[in-house]
Amino acid sequence: MAPCLEWVRVIGGRCVQRIRAVLIVVLFILVFAEAMSAQTITLFPEHIVLALPKQSGQTFTVSYTTNPMKVLIDSNFPIAHLLPSESFGDVALREMRYSQGPKGSRVVLDFNYPIPQGVITEGESFFQLDIPKTFVNTTRRMVEFGVVYGHQRRADSFGPNVVNYLEIDLWYGYEVKLALAQNRLFGSEQVSSIAKRTGAIAAVNGAFFASTGRPLGVFMIDGELISEPYADRTALGLGPKLAVMDRVSFRGEIVLNDGSLLTTLQGVNRPRLQDELIIYTQHHGTKTNTNSFGREVVVVNGTVTQIQPGNSTIPPDGFVLSAHGVQTERLGQLAVGDGLEVNITLNPAWDGLGVNQIIGGGPRLVRDGRLEITGEEELFRDDILAGRAPRTAIGLTDDQKLLFVTVNGRQPNISVGMTLHELGNLLIELGALQAMNLDGGGSTTMVIRDFVLNLPSDGKERPVG
Question: Structurally, what CATH architecture does the domain formed by 250-347 represent?
């Protein structure tokens, strides 16, 4: 009998066990080698770690290129277990490439957007490069005394963002005012054109607006209410060296000469809906543009001068009350020659503070230095509340500085935009004690000295209301 067979016959079990042990060791070595290769790059939400084995006498040199963004790791020796090319589904890192030549080897990390330099750690047997994915790079410069422009290139685990902001010290007495596109209620105009027309040092887009350009929500210029609040949304009030922020509600009353209440008002300079009473002023234009299914009362100097069904001419020194449904019965009590007055109040009563400019926006982002998103309470929909988008916001600091902030968005690998929570945290980071959202998306625009600083997501500057 052959010795091997005799050995197997006598102690065959042990022979098999040894064969299994050899197989296990070989498999373990193979798996371990593959694991080492897979762990060359480790992706974390906030950073990337490159770990390479190091031989005796081996050196590594790291360099960077920014256009396109690459990290180059050169070594005087080859590096084991690296593939020629490996792609990654990471938001920042696109690909790792490896090559070697007679003078050594090179690892190239291709990134989707600019990143800061990494931190190198070396030991006798390893080389490690830790590259941050979460960072904020800020530059600031003075536009005028009391007006500072800030620019940020920043990134987090969701990708990069470009932020522009203005910091205006109200104690310097700068006049911060609102303006309508084309200086009228209807129509649209680019922010850069409005800034140039009004001679503004700087400007940002503001209120949400309808397809006609009409502002949606409360809007007051120089003490004249142009449109009423909607859903008691958050608004900003401005006056000489003053800025305040709160949710704003509205009440309008039609009072007769004897002091009795005729009826209440539902809106200002907007389309009349069922059973509503709307007041139309000179800001609406020359006509009410209403249909004939109602009743309209023309008032000049507090006296009714004309009554008709609809589409009345708005007098330059008066207004038109336009009623539908049940409200036509209230106006039916009036006759030509009757006297009346319209009392409109906003709550809070900011006029007592000297506020003469009010812009509605929302939702609230920050209250008393803490994140507070009031989207549901202010009846906003998901097109505003959900997801990432270009954003415009306004904030107030504890030392009476006004912050205008824009965030570029919808631009992969350049600026992905922010959620409202991220926007609120950004305002807190910039020092806001109070903050609210404004119209964003393609409307987001910041202009300083007639120059558009942000990258509008439409690819060009959008006309706004």
Answer: Sandwich (2.60)
